[in-house]
Amino acid sequence: MGRPRTNDAAVRERLLACATEMFATRPQESVTVRALATAAGTSTAAVYTLFQGKDGLIREVRDQAVAGLFQDLTAVPGSEDALKDLYALSVAYRLWGIEHRHLYTVLFGGAQPFVPSHRIGDRDPVRPLVAAIDRAVVGHILAGDTTLIAVSLWVALHGLVTLELAGSLDGTAAETAFGSTVDAVLRGWATPSAFPGLRRTDPAL
User: Fold this and answer.
1) CB contact set of 166 (below 8 Å; sequence gap of 6+)
2) Is residue 28 over pLDDT 90?
3) Mean pLDDT of all residues belonging to the chain
4) Which end of the chain is less crowded, N or C, counting CB atoms within 10 A of the terminal residue's CB?
5) What is the pTM of this model?
6) 61: nearest Cα among 133, 112, 27, 121
7) In this structure, how many other beta carbons lie within 10 angstroms of the beta carbon of residue 193?
8) Do 19 and 107 meet the contact criterion of CB atoms below 8 Å apart?
9) What confidence tens digit (pLDDT) does each residue in 115-156 have?
10) In angstroms, rounded to a whole number, what is the distance separating the alpha carbons of residues 141 and 11?
């Protein structure tokens, strides 16, 4: 009989889960291969066998985060209203961040933070937002460079999600801040003809 396989899918998943939590909550330099293996109940050899080391494990965790956010944003149904789609995508972004707090932290501020650039790949997690912004620019609803608009919206969303994950915003305050901030960003890029439609009618906001 051959030797039993110890570095199997279950070990891989345990390592990924432990790495996600540790890279999101601890300084990267303090997360050693030994600490990862101990947390996952396996050997240091498994980290090298399955991921070629700590850096490979970091890349795998980050790739999972990218894929998860991309999947949730691309699942948002499109419509003929680009602004409506941008609001829906913003909501989906926020929900993914709240529901996957450790993956979100790894992706946007942990071991290997995401750095926006002018090159948007086919699997880039913000690609659906960029596509909706493109449509809004072509339709003369928003005016400006698509990348600049996308970065400004992402910065606003990231700030909101980060504050919410930190407990600085919650409940009604989080909902109000989210709606008013997304409105403000889109109003800032809106064309004169579209501007009135982006104003809140509720005098309390």
Assistant:
1) none
2) no
3) 84
4) N
5) 0.81
6) 112
7) 9
8) no
9) 444 444 456 778 889 999 999 999 999 999 999 999 999 999
10) 50
Name 190's bridge partners.
Answer: 142
187 exposure class (CB count in 10 Å sphere: 0-12, 13-18, 19+) = middle
Q: Which residue has the tokens 């690609």?
A: 127
Q: Measured between alpha carbons, how far is residue 77 from residues 88, 110, 177 in Å?
A: 9, 30, 24
Alpha carbon separation from 14 to 35, 39, 85, 167 (Å, rounded): 13, 9, 36, 28
Residue type, 117: S
Look at residue 120 and give its three-state secondary structure: coil
Which residue type, as a one-letter code, is found at position 80? E
Angle of helix 44-51 relative to helix 9-25, nearest 10 degrees, comes to 100
Query: What's the sign of the alpha-carbon dihedral 107, 132, 156, 121?
Result: positive
| Residue where the block lists tokens 């009618």 | 201
Tell me the H-state helices in 26-100: 33-40, 44-51, 54-74, 82-99
